[in-house]
User: Fold these one by one.
Assistant:
Number 1:
Amino acid sequence: MAIFLTEKSKVIVQGMTGSEGQKHTTRMLASGTAVVGGVNPRKAGTSVDFATADGSVSVPVFGSVKDAVAETGADVSVIFVPPAHTKGAVVEAVDAGVPLVVIITEGVPVADTAEFFSYAQSKGVRLIGPNCPGLISPGKSNVGIIPADIAAAGKIGLVSKSGTLTYQMMYELRDFGFSTAIGIGGDPIIGTTHIDALEAFEADPETAAIVMIGEIGGDAEERAAAFIKDNVTKPVVGYVAGFTAPEGKTMGHAGAIVSGSSGTAQAKKEALEAAGVKVGKTPSETAALMREILSA
């Protein structure tokens, strides 16, 4: 099985006609994703041809998300639009009743994210991102920018703040495979959290074990540790990026800043280990810990 994204998911791409949208729509189609439409008010009524292994597929462009949903029954939207237009794109998808909205865009103003996240919550819409690589249920569907050919389907659930570390962990554990891998993004405000993914993986009968990748800054990993201790029965291994980060410096993601002893990799590691999570000092060590669990 998979969480949030299955072979039945019907995907529309907001920003499909732009260069990034076209590039990643090509990739999504190649990995078997059911991309049923794009959205661009200026190009409504046209279509875009994408090369596939079997030739090409023509994907229609709609003037609004509402029109796209009405015509296709889409239940997922992935957003590839510039930061200044992201809030409007998310609100449009939420108003159209799309239950899952994946926001790839980097550099979205935090105030905008706070506003559209609150609005999406009030409407019961799940957001993933912004500033994330998306999610993949290997062999079923792939929404975002995660490479589809680095791991097959399997029984590991993966949730990660880092896109690059998502890819590395999938590659390291490719022989075991994944039910779903989710890159939740590293901004200070994100739509789906570690806890949301942990809860879904715990409820998924086909996910046998979970890898959780965090990073310095904030207290998301500490809160996830408390959730794991009280609610998760499946084995969890973890990795916290930033053991060598200097105090007071923002490292990469906007949310990754350490103040005093709060938010350090060591503090997060200790909180996770206190909850029974085995934590690796490197991604490869973390993969080895999962390998031991699944090989036992």
Number 2:
Amino acid sequence: MQSFNHPPQLNTSRRFSDNLTSAHALTLKAKQGQKGNSQGKPYALPAFNITTIQGINAAFDAFETLGASGLLAVSNSALKHFGGGDPLTGLEVAAEYIASRAKRSSIQVATHLDHGDYTTEAGRKVVQGAVQHLTSVMADNSTDHANKCGRSLEENIGYTREVVNMAHPLGVSVEGELGVLAGEEDEDTKSEISTYTQPDEFEQFITETGVLMIAPTIGTMHGPNKGKPGTKVKLNIELAHELLKIADRVQPETIFVAHGASTLYSQVVEHAVEQLENLGAGMAEKYGQTWKNYVGTDWEQIQGLIGAGFAKINTDTENRQTFLSALLGAVHENAAKIDIRWYDKKTTDALTQSYLIKCIMADNYGVWHEPKLNVEKFKFDLHVSLADAINNAH
């Protein structure tokens, strides 16, 4: 291996606004099993992709109910939505609102740019802006979208290293990606190809970039269709453990990130189909099968990843499904409600339930204080209000 200048270490002395910290600081606690003053088994932080203010509120409510660490991620398309088409304006809007919630919070959270592309002029501006406004960024330079192929290792390392050089001195953690993940997360994140992370390239990548967080590709997919209906997604857990051995030898504080890890809860699908049938007008015939065809990643597979060093579990599709399923139920309940805040509350409460159950599944609770409910009794049920679901879990 050729000699090179060592990348800058993450500045862990940087202090962000009240209750904000880097994603690496929180996920490292999870990998090491730290909760309060005790140390137990590893757990993971679900990283919730946030697309609306309601989504931010739901996430904070869930984290604070559970005493959980929080990880809020924004994609380029989400930033455009927050900023009226301008992602840089969206960065300011989202970051300022999250900071205002964090200031009054009982837990700590990190803000993260998901799929930051440093290979284009527009993408570079967003990543540079994210380094100034967020506490963590992803430098997703593994895919050559123009030519629909994987980018060379040397190019990926070069672009990612530039982001590390800019972010680490400011205390902003950086996530890289090695390999290509297929599927479509949103309009700005999609790929028709998929390649596994190669162990021989992995060591070179983490050594020469200095990233402390990395998304290896081990069989997950973006989007709501991760396989054929009735089949189970099969992840390469053996490869994950092989990569973990390398990471523990080269840099033990390396955190693995699972992209395309949405679970897609069966009760959410069943609730949506039920509401479509209730709405009539051929809705169930037109859209019901689409809902039934959705395939997610089995949670048992994700649990296997947590044991292989994965401490950040990205979730987006399952949250969108929960929102839409709850909205269909709200429209069926009252399709002439003029006060749109009523619909907002219905969907936000449903999102909060979704966030609660995912944090509980990942053992991300009791980190900053004792949960305000009995985690073993909590049931995720869109037929029940959030208040009743919490009351039933006491």
